[in-house]
Design goal:
InterPro entries: LysR_HTH_N, LysR_subst-bd, WH-like_DNA-bd_sf, WH_DNA-bd_sf. This protein has about 300 residues and is of the alpha/beta class. About 45% of the residues lie in helices and about 20% in strands. Strand 1 and strand 2 form a beta hairpin.
């Protein structure tokens, strides 16, 4: 059976009539009839019983339907892709990011990018890094952002901005002189907001504390850096956070100091090794990198 035969055959199997299949496929009834007759002629057997204008599939038709279902789905996907590629103004850039960067960096970066790519569609989703790797490998995303290098053989990790781990506390916790100096684990005082188990930054913080014989107690533990930042802004305690989240906090509500000894934090652009970026996607990555670096510069000033 040819691809057109399969498409018409599946439409008839789903709706049960020539007229219904014609409506689904947006072609004429005679065209549907002609394609079906040609398919049956090639196969050398009828696929349907004709009873009062309705078509009833024979057992052979059910067998064929089961075997060609995946092929038909693939055909529909190819048609949708071709329609999308036909209209280049409708080009889509699919970006996935960890929530931290999606909130702290992307709003300003997308605003800058839109000045030159006003007609390009951008789909943004937030995933954790393990999910990001799967999305890139399966071709469900074009580019991604994470504070971790997944070190996966199928993923390219390009550093586009870098800062250091920061300690954030409610306004008035430290003097101006103290804010100009890094803070060590022994300098942590008061309520400390912790990060969830197995969080990479959280694990580094605990390891650095224990290396100096400091054992922090967390009465509040959160899943995301944004929740920790919001709690600090509300005066609920202090938190050790990535530099991007720290730099995007409300300066009238918090104070920030660099963690000592310094722990570098990189922002990585992640892409699939086998899939080069389009012009629009690469320019978006450039805007993100520039925005992230500017944010860190502003936060340190």
């Amino acid at each position: 059976m040819r691809l057109r035969h399969i498409e018409v055959f599946h439409a008839i199997m789903q709706v049960g009539t020539i007229s219904g299949a014609a409506q689904v496929l947006h072609i004429s009834q005679p065209a549907v009839t002609k394609v079906l007759q040609h398919a049956e002629l090639q196969l050398g057997m009828p696929l349907f019983e004709r009873v009062r204008g309705k078509l009833y599939p024979k057992p052979e038709a059910h067998r064929l339907f089961a075997e060609t279902e995946k092929l038909n789905r693939d055909l529909q996907g190819i048609r949708r892709l071709a329609a999308s590629l036909k209209n280049r103004a409708g080009e889509t850039v699919r970006l996935v990011s960890t929530p931290t960067i999606a909130i702290s960096v992307l709003p300003a970066a997308l605003t800058d990018w839109r000045r030159d790519f006003s007609q390009t569609r951008c789909e943004l989703a937030t995933f954790h890094t393990s999910e990001i790797v799967n999305a890139l490998r399966l071709g469900e995303a074009d580019l991604a952002l994470s504070l971790q290098d997944p070190r996966h053989p199928g993923i390219e990790a390009e550093p586009i901005a870098a800062g250091n781990l920061m300690v954030m506390a409610p306004k008035g916790t430290w003097s101006e002189e103290e804010c100009r100096e890094p803070i060590t684990p022994s300098g942590l005082k008061g309520e400390l907001i912790g990060l969830a188990d197995r969080d990479p930054l959280g694990e580094m913080v605990v390891a650095a504390c224990e290396a100096q014989d400091v054992h922090p107690v967390f009465h509040t533990v959160v899943q995301t850096y944004q929740i920790a930042r919001s709690l600090v802004e509300a005066g609920a305690g202090s938190a050790v956070l990535d530099p991007f989240t720290a730099a995007s906090a409300a300066r009238d509500k918090v104070q920030c100091r660099q963690w000592a000894p310094a722990i570098p934090v990189q922002l990585y652009l992640l892409t699939a090794s086998h899939a080069p970026l389009s012009h629009g996607a690469r320019e978006l990555a450039n805007c993100i990198g520039a925005t992230a670096r500017a944010l860190l510069d502003k936060g340190s000033s």
